[in-house]
Amino acid sequence: MAKKQFKSESKRLLDLMINSIYTHKEIFLRELISNASDAVDKLCFLSLTDDKVGLSREDFRINLTIDKENRLLIVEDNGIGMDKDDLDNNLGTIASSGSYRFKQENEKTDDVDIIGQFGVGFYSAFMVADKVEVLTRKYGADSAYLWSSSGADGYTVKEAEKDSVGTVVTLHIKEDTENEHYSEFLEQYRISELVRKYSDYIRYPIIMDMTRSKVKEGTEEKPEYETVTEAETLNSMIPIWQRPKKDVTEQEYEDFYKSKFMAFDKPAKIITTSVEGVVTYKALLYIPSKTPYDYYTKEYKKGLQLYSSGVLIMENCEELLPEHFRFVKGVVDSQDFSLNISREVLQHDHQLKTVANTLEKKIKNELASMLKKDRETYESFFGEFGRQLKYGIVSDYGMHKDNLKDLLMFNSSNGDKLTTLAEYRERMSEEQKYIYFATGESIASISKLPQAEVVLNKGYELLYCTQDIDEFTLQTLAEYDGKQFRSVDSDDLGIEPEQNEPAAENSDEVLKFVRDALGDRVSEVVASKKLVSHPVCMTAKGGISFEMEKYFNAMQPDAGMKAQRCLELNMNHSAVKAMAELIGKDDEKAKKYAEIFYNQSLLIAGLPIENPSDYADLVCSLM
Ligand code: ADP
Question: Cα(60)–Cα(304) distance, rounded to whole angstroms?
Fold first, then answer.
């Protein structure tokens, strides 16, 4: 029979697995049990609506068998099973699991760490076995298959006999070598210890024949011993979220997070909650500290796992999380959700809404308290997911803004640190009319904008908006605690600039002259009320800012979205006055000045100038 090759990326990970001197080989058991449990979940769920399954909740189980003589460890489940395609797709490739992609993106990361941090799934079996066989029959299928592999050189699949639905994974445990010991995985005590350590919460009994010596009946006075073998359930079956918080260690919560959600970061926050009321439920939620690698792709699925009385009824229940908290991971368990409800009906269930609402409040409060009590963690969280919160503010016509506004942070002229809006507000003086902000590509470029000068000179704080979403966010908020947001681009900043120099006398004439010289390249030319030491600036009129223009043009280059350009002249500036002098005497030269002012203002605003070489020639002609 021809051997099939593993898909190339699988083969490489497999090599890595087989050859790594990995100190935590023992996790293979957790991975196999977790696969078995998932498979049982699937059939258990089907059994709720499909009588043909012929099994009820109590019938589901996972069996472990040790055959010491033949060095076999066998993990058997009566779950959904696999057909031929499943075997090829699931056990022939590992591309779908996060670990490999993470590995690719972080090439320099230590191999050993990767294996330790991830659930590496089925392949981890090869850390302890030199041959793995999977005998499986899928629910609803007539034939069974035997998948077999001795590692990196490929695998075979052939038809086989199996009476019942489910999967039997047989590991041929490696021989001990001088440095590596594998025989421990053939010891009952060791296996039962591993089950309790890693898989205690699995909601189905994990059963193994345990041999122990026992006092013979009737010999209590003068004990005689005999050896008995009895099937024992090794796990307590209490899910981690059902255990009292004080009995669960931080490490256990973290391990659960990593293995359940394929995560590799230490969560920024672990939230446990137990609610009794209209709907009674327990939830265990995690706020990640790192953006998942697929967060901004279609593959990322928002949602929480939904359980009802210990049965997983939905892998990703989207309705439980608002979009702005889509980074949250976790489980919700409530006996109030009826089991035999179809998934579609469940989606419209008002109970779900109730749970979703209380969870949203809870998450928000936890974030707010993190901001208050553990600023450093919050700032790093905000660096990862702040953009998501801002999207939350602008989405749904600003419906969530009151909920989210106090979670925002911005850079500002107040220093290197991020500030909240409340903190800005608190620093505001009596006379300051507005909360000022300026948009641009970097803090450095914003802080040098001519139009920012009057605000900064006045000693007022300026919010630096460097993300494309920032300006929409502030526009949606409109105000904070009674103070409106005001862009430094707007005509009226509510500040009278201090003028030492008298303005040019023929102001109106100058403005009209420049307007005529520039034609429809600008929509307005005005005498600036805010420029101090700079001669010109370009501001955007009519609601679309230059940052929005850049943003939209990047998204849809053909749409030709353009902000209205308003050229502001500082009538007190010597360069502007020099131009004013020329008007009527040397109009040609005055026009050149106007042209230079226009191009300068574009450059400062970070906008492309229409013809750089013409501009250079123009400047040279005046030199
Ligand atoms: P993961 O569990 O992270 O998806 P694995 O490599 O552990 O990755 O398993 C790959 C896939 O193989 C699983 O998603 C599942 O579809 C299938 N599988 C593994 N073990 C079993 C099993 N005991 N019963 C049914 N399907 C299984």
Answer: 24
CB 562 within 8 A of CB 549: yes
Structural Rg of the chain based on CA atoms:
34
- Range among 118-132, 137-151, 336-350 with highest mean pLDDT value: 137-151
35 Cα to the center of ligand 1, angstroms? 5
The Cα–Cα gap between 173 and 70 comes to 9
Mutating to test ligand 1, I would choose from 41, 74, 122 the residue with most ligand atoms within 8 A of its C-beta, which is 122
Average pLDDT over residues 289-300: 89
Residue 213's pLDDT band, with cuts at 50, 70 and 90, is confident
Contact criterion met (CB below 8 Å) for 452 and 438: yes
Best probe residue, ligand 1, of 35, 41, 312 (max atoms within 8 Å of C-beta): 35
Amino acid identity of 4? K
Helical pair 507-518 and 587-604, crossing angle rounded to 10 deg: 80
- The angle, 0 to 180 degrees and rounded to 10, between the axes of the packed helices 546-555 and 468-477 is 120
Question: How many other CB atoms are there within 10 angstroms of residue 542's CB atom?
Answer: 9
The yes or no reply on domain 499-623 and CATH 1.20.120.790 is yes
C-alpha 524/C-alpha 622 separation (Å) is 26
C-alpha of residue 100 to centroid of ligand 1, in Å: 16
The mean pLDDT of the chain is 87
pLDDT value, residue 413: 96
User: What is the reported pTM?
Assistant: 0.72
Alpha-carbon span 302 to 249, nearest angstrom = 27
pLDDT in tens, 462-519: 999 999 899 989 999 999 999 999 999 887 788 876 665 566 667 889 999 999 999 9
| Fold of the domain built from segment(s) 409-496 | Rossmann fold (3.40.50)
Q: Phi/psi of residue 464, each to 5°?
A: -100, 115
The CATH class of 11-233 is alpha beta
Q: Which CATH class is domain 240-379?
A: alpha beta
> What's the 90 CA to ligand 1 centre distance in angstroms?
6
Residue where the block lists tokens 């939350």: 392
Burial track 324-333 (b if 16+ CB lie within 10 A, e otherwise): bbbbbbbbbb
Q: How many CB atoms lie within 10 A of CB 302?
A: 18
What are the domain boundaries of the chain? Answer: 11-233, 240-379, 409-496, 499-623
Minimal CA–CA distance to 542: which of 494, 487, 496?
A: 487
